[in-house]
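Z., the sequence and structure:
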Amino acid sequence: MTSPNLLILYVEDPARSGGFYEKILEQAPAFQSPGYVGFAFESGLSLGLWSTSSPEFVSAGTGHRSEIAIAIDGDDKIDALHDTWKAAGVAIEQPPFTAVFGRTFVALDPDGHRIRVCPPDK
């Protein structure tokens, strides 16, 4: 069985985006180069930030049509994380509210990628 283990976001400035994710994820990158920053998580999933100006980057696609989701159990913890990120200057696209699946909010990274915080699937 094939199991995805890497998400890649295309970014203008990997160092800037790497600093942003290091701050909100509270962990240092596992790998850094001028055109790519990578984070590795205990779950086995990795996040890559790849420069759109890298000579190896070729894509005709545009726009952001996906989200990174961070599952947190507990409405109070979701609200607290929102408050922490907002105080740190993280752009909030959608403030906390209760959706059909539970409490949630959406933040934006420096390139406009959506980061949804929500409860885990149950």
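The two ends are 24 Å apart (CA to CA). The helical segments are 14-25, 75-87.

Let me know what you think.
H.
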